[in-house]
Amino acid sequence: MSETNVKPTVKRNLAAKIVAVIVAAVLWLYVVNEQNPPIEASFTIPLEYQNLSPGLIVIDAPDVVRVKVRGPRSIISGVQSKDLKAYADMKDRGEGRHVVRITAAVPASLELVEINPDRINLRLEASVRRQFPLEIRTTGKSPPGVVVERLAPAPDTVTVEGAKSIVEAIARVVATVDLTDRSATFVAEVTPQVLTRDGREVSEVKLTPAKAKVSVLLTQQVKRTVSVKPEVVGSPAAGFVITHVTTEPEKIDIMGAKAVIEKIDAVFTEPVNVTGLDKDTTREVRLQIRPGLAVSQDKATVYIIVSPSRQKER
After folding, report:
1. What is the C-alpha to C-alpha distance for residues 308 and 239, in angstroms, rounded to an integer?
2. Per the confidence metrics, is the pTM higher than 0.70?
3. d(CA 247, CA 268)
């Protein structure tokens, strides 16, 4: 075979091979895209704050953002929220309001499509700490005849840390112990709640410790009969005096722990205001009952007798 005949054949074979490679590559890409196409997925991830100045805290801002990414289905299917990061750079930002851009970091095999929101309006405020006594409340009922003698939380104070405006609105820290079916002394683990003056629970603070233990001393209930004493405030009208004050009933039964009952000789009414009074008056008022006590009745009628003073009679 001559050289003249070989060259055209080689050229024809080379061209065919190139075409075959191109076709194979196209077919491979087609198959890959069919079997493992690119898809999009959205993830909700925590929003982090970087370079935040010491002593400042972020408020009025979202805790999470939504991040959308694109990539091969085989890779997307294995991605978890923890593989993505979203953060706001707080460098050189002081107290007050700021508009901050959100940045996201995603694996190199993925394409970042969207951050929602991509900017946020937030406020930086000084972080403060304040101590509160831990108040213990009870719920539920012990068996008949069993009462609470003492509630002893440990610790008896907690530290609340948070933005100054939020901490200043806090009125108390309380924890609740359930007495249902309890008939003997026990120790309960409780989670304190932070409350504002109007009873709204505050969650935007850090509580130390986050949990406490309460020793609940239960004892048998005892009963005692004590006097009902009226509490009178104010002064009657000019020229008149209060000559006699009585209650109905004069005595009531109180029930509670022996150690508490033994220290109580009388139960007082809520204050009765006699300011400007110039005639006999009858008032129904509630009794001031200590927490943890049961009473035969919680109201009393107060009879107030008013007479002209001797100076007016002259």
Report:
1. 6
2. no
3. 10
CATH class of 127-220: mainly beta
Instruction: Return the number of other C-beta atoms located less than 10 Å from residue 18's C-beta.
Output: 10
In whole angstroms, give the CA distance from residue 194 to residue 203.
Answer: 7
Quick: pLDDT tens for 132-155. 999 999 999 888 888 888 899 999
CA–CA separation, 214 and 140 (whole Å): 16
Q: How far is residue 209's CA from residue 170's CA, in Å, rounded to a whole number?
A: 17
pLDDT band at 220 (very low <50, low <70, confident <90, very high): confident
CA-to-CA distance for 196 and 82, rounded, in angstroms? 35
- What is the tens place of the pLDDT at every residue in 8-66? 555 556 666 676 677 666 655 555 555 678 899 999 999 999 999 999 999 889 999 99
**Terminus-to-terminus CA distance in the chain, angstroms?**
159
Look up the CATH number of domain 230-313: 2.170.120.40
Question: Could you give the C-alpha distances from 311 to 194, 230, 240, 241, 243, in angstroms and in order?
Answer: 57, 27, 9, 11, 14
Helix, strand, coil shares, percent, the chain, to 5: 15, 55, 30
Span 242-265, mean pLDDT?
A: 90
Residue 254 near residue 290 (C-beta atoms within 8 A): no
Which is nearest to 115 in space by CA: 57, 79, 75, 62? Answer: 62
CA dist 121 and 123 (Å) reads: 7
CA geometry: angle 123, 127, 132, nearest 5 deg: 130
| Fold match, 39-117 / 127-220 | yes
CA atoms in the 13 A half-sphere facing the CB of 231: 10
Task: Name the phi and psi angles at 20, rounded to 5.
Answer: -65, -40
Q: What is the CATH topology of the domain spanning 39-117?
A: RNA Polymerase Alpha Subunit; Chain A, domain 2 (2.170.120)
- Domain positions in the chain: 1-35, 39-117, 127-220, 230-313
